[in-house]
Design a protein that fits this description.
It contains 25 helices and 30 strands. The chain is α/β, with parallel strands linked by helices and 772 residues long. Among the domains are: 45 residues, no CATH class; 255 residues, Dimethylsulfoxide Reductase, domain 2. Strand 8, helix 7 and strand 9 form a beta-alpha-beta unit. Helix 4 packs parallel to helix 18, helix 8 runs antiparallel to helix 11 and helix 11 crosses helix 12. The longest helix is centred in the first third of the chain and has 19 residues.
């Protein structure tokens, strides 16, 4: 007789109780304290027992027959041969040992970017990095796709990139923020998840309190849907990628109408006098006034001036969604926003100032005392070589080529092998046809994954990993944006022949002779106890009393007490800039950065500027591809996680990924709701299903990221993708040499009705044989 039980566990999208019958997960009951659990919980059982699970270790046929470097153009279409765990690990040990001896450890790229699974111990990238650091290291990456530009800009102009995850709390804004101007909106769908996990979803309740308290919300961007109508007082539908021009015009109005706070600028900033000649046009003969910006943004000049006056007359909070930086010259809107906020002068006052990333995750802005949860230590990487995170294809296609990054000059390494665990570059990287070409260069590609994702299908050696439901762990926000620490208790045994990555690397560590260094004598529960006690000690130093591990594990969670008072970012600095200086060279907000100016970058000079994007509606390319594609985060999945699950699949249009179009653009192309269309440009082609909506401005189409890359002809460069992965058509270029961040939001496309019969995405696993 099957035994039914529940255990507490969690995912990036929330804590829940996994319901099991025997060795199967049959449901997910939301956490009792969560007022608004994520709908994604409904897909939990779907993916745990999906036919897409990788059942056994597998090796690409050509690779198994002929060794590293064999028929790399057949990645994605070669069948796989199942092998034993010993065969797979012996193969990895032999080939990596030979490679390290001949080419050095820098010939292995193992950045393994991706959110992977929640959990402090079973973090797929950390497990991999800990093992590789014991055997000589690997080429790494710096930065991330989500906040790649501001991560490297912020230290120069604000001093602390952690401001991204710790802006003023909503509690400090209720009843005080009169006007919230949000560039890119406050997308509530993004508030479902937080990297590492979230205890309760209560961000919306705080937005309700702000609205009830009198806050007026102005949404600036091409999508009205980026801010729920319940909160939105006004929508300024600017062209995509034109936000910087709008901000500069707001600054120009504040300056010329004598509305800016000169006392704040004098006491708390540096470099304003060097920015003024650019604003007024004295520097280049072009005043950055409202008329100038109106031509670029298509927001009327009168509305721009009106907004500037409102901001000066109100306690104003300026918010920038993180999506703005994922565009060409993505550093500029954040620097321009800092200039604008400084001129308004409300930074450091309750209810005013600036925030980057409200609406980015479940916990950003929510009042909390963060719990400094300890994670698996990875040790030191002996290899110094790295790449900016989004320059994968450049690295593979052009080894040895020089590149500039954040003031330094470097060269791309020559990569012989890639090891990816806990991520899916065939989801998040731009220009997938270019990536396919680059992916053929390495001689060996190893992928750990529970499912036959796009990346696993393009590997040479595939290792089946467990999911969070098949192991024990501790969860909690990686960005300290949540007040919960929670147990992640094993619900079911490992499925098929899947193994915990810790056990995989333990076996490899034995082969490489570093078992003791890797394990430190601990098994899974030994590590959890160790990491929890480290967390408990650190929390105690901050005045939090966590229970003993056994009590925590039995109770299932710990909730930190509320903060003693509402948090206002930069309040201490405003009270006394001498006693609490910023971590910038000047100790102040740097509206002009001498450091950045000395880098000599034409596309990221010493102060915020408007620079025309490589692709946008104001460029010549718009004559051929007249629609700007906005690719934002999805509602029914987390990035590409759970795309095959029921919640994501229910959002599809006859099996195709939705594309939203303005009625005028649809009518011009004789398209109706539900039509299957081809979305294309010179980089690639994909299929989508039409949704017609007035919630986006004309000339703009919107598709969510994360649809699995499932080309009609696997492995073929230029093939049509019925899966609807937007990165088939995005541009693979860095924002600037400062951060080299991705620019997926600078992409022009055309849309036409698809040819009949319409091909549908095929999620089926690749061809697999039990033996050669």
């Amino acid at each position: 007789m099957q035994q039914n039980r529940e255990v507490i566990t969690g995912a990036h999208w929330g804590v829940f109780h996994a319901q099991t019958a025997g060795q199967r997960v049959v449901g997910a009951r939301p956490f009792d304290l969560d007022p608004q659990p994520s709908a994604m919980l409904a897909a939990t059982a779907d993916l745990a027992h999906s036919p897409l699970r990788i059942k056994k270790p597998a090796v690409r046929k050509s690779y198994l027959q002929h060794g590293p470097g064999s028929a790399t153009d057949r990645r994605g279409k070669d069948p796989f041969i199942e092998v034993s765990w010993d065969q797979a690990l012996d193969l990895i040990h032999r080939h990596l040992s030979e490679q390290f001896a001949e080419h050095g450890n820098e010939s292995l790229f193992a950045g393994s970017y991706g959110w992977a699974s929640a959990g402090k111990f079973h973090s797929a990238p950390k497990q991999l990095h800990r093992f590789l650091n014991q055997v000589g290291g690997f080429t790494f990456h710096k930065g991330n796709y989500s906040a790649g530009a501001i991560t490297f800009l912020a230290p120069h102009i604000i001093g602390d990139p952690w401001f991204l995850f710790a802006p003023s709390s909503y509690a400090s804004m209720v009843g005080k923020t009169e006007l919230m101007v949000t560039f890119g909106g406050l997308p509530t769908k993004n508030m479902q998840a937080d990297q590492g996990g979230v205890g309760v979803h209560d961000a919306l309740s705080w937005l309700d309190r702000l609205k009830t308290g009198g806050t007026r919300f102005i949404n600036i961007g091409p999508l009205a849907s980026d801010l729920d109508r319940a909160y939105q007082d006004r929508w300024l539908a600017c062209r995509p990628n034109s936000d910087t021009a709008l901000m500069l015009a707001l600054c120009h109005t504040l300056y010329t109408e004598k509305l800016c706070d000169h006392e704040f600028l004098h006491r708390y900033t540096t470099g304003f006098e060097k920015v003024v000649p650019y604003l007024t046009g004295e520097q280049d003969g072009l005043a950055k006034n409202a008329e100038w910006a109106a031509q670029l943004t298509e927001v009327p000049a009168a509305q721009i001036r009106q907004l500037a006056r409102e901001m000066a007359a109100s306690r104003t909070m300026i918010n920038l969604a993180l999506s703005l930086q994922r565009a060409d010259h993505g550093e500029q809107p954040y620097w321009a926003a800092l200039l604008l906020a400084a001129m308004v002068g409300d930074i450091g006052l309750a209810g005013g100032g600036i925030g980057f990333g409200y609406g980015t995750g479940a916990g950003v802005g929510v009042p909390r005392q963060p719990i400094p949860a300890a994670g698996l230590p990875i040790g030191n990487n002996p290899v110094e070589r790295f790449i900016p995170v989004a320059r994968i294809s450049d690295m593979l296609l052009e080894p040895g080529k020089p590149f500039s990054f954040n003031g330094g000059d470097y060269q791309y390494p020559d990569i012989e092998a890639i090891w990816w665990a806990g991520g899916n570059p065939f989801h998040h990287h731009q220009d997938l046809n270019r990536l396919l070409q680059a992916w053929r260069k390495p001689k060996t590609i190893i992928v750990n994954d529970p499912w036959w994702t796009s990346t696993a299908r393009h590997a040479d050696i595939v290792l089946p990993a467990t999911t969070t439901l098949e192991r024990n762990d501790i969860g909690g926000s990686n960005f300290l944006t949540d007040r919960f620490l929670f147990a992640m208790q094993q619900a079911i045994p490992p499925q098929h022949q899947a193994r915990n990555e810790y056990d995989i690397y333990h076996d490899l560590a034995c082969r490489f002779g570093v078992e003791t260094e890797f394990t430190e004598g601990r098994d899974e529960m030994g590590w959890l106890n160790h990491l929890y006690n480290q967390t408990r000690d650190t929390a105690q130093e901050r005045g939090m009393e966590l229970p003993e591990f056994e009590q925590f594990w039995q109770q299932g969670y710990y909730e930190a007490p509320p903060p003693p008072e509402p948090y206002t970012a930069f309040a201490e600095f405003r009270r006394d800039p001498t006693a609490a200086p910023l971590k910038t060279p000047s100790g102040c907000f740097e509206l002009y950065s001498e450091t950045i100016a000395k880098f000599g970058y034409d596309d990221c000079p010493g102060h915020p500027v408007w620079l025309e994007p490589a692709e946008w509606l104001g460029s010549q390319q718009a004559d051929q591809f007249p629609l700007h594609l906005v690719s934002n985060q999805p509602q029914g999945r987390l990035h590409s996680q759970f795309d095959p699950g029921r919640v994501s699949q229910q959002s599809k249009i006859s099996g195709l990924e939705p594309i939203s179009m303005n009625p005028a653009d649809a009518a011009e192309r004789a398209l109706q709701p539900g039509d299957a269309v081809e979305v294309f440009n010179n980089r690639g082609r994909l299929l989508a299903g039409v949704v017609i909506s007035e919630a986006l401005r004309p000339g703009v189409v919107q598709m969510s990221t994360g649809a699995w890359f499932l080309p009609q002809e696997p492995g073929e460069i230029g093939a049509l993708d019925p899966g609807g992965n937007v990165n088939m058509v995005t541009l693979d270029k860095g924002t600037s040499p400062l951060s080299q961040a991705p620019i997926a939001q600078s992409a022009l496309v055309e849309v036409k009705k698809a040819r009949e019969p319409v091909c549908r995405p095929d999620y089926s696993p690749p061809e697999i044989f039990p033996t050669l």
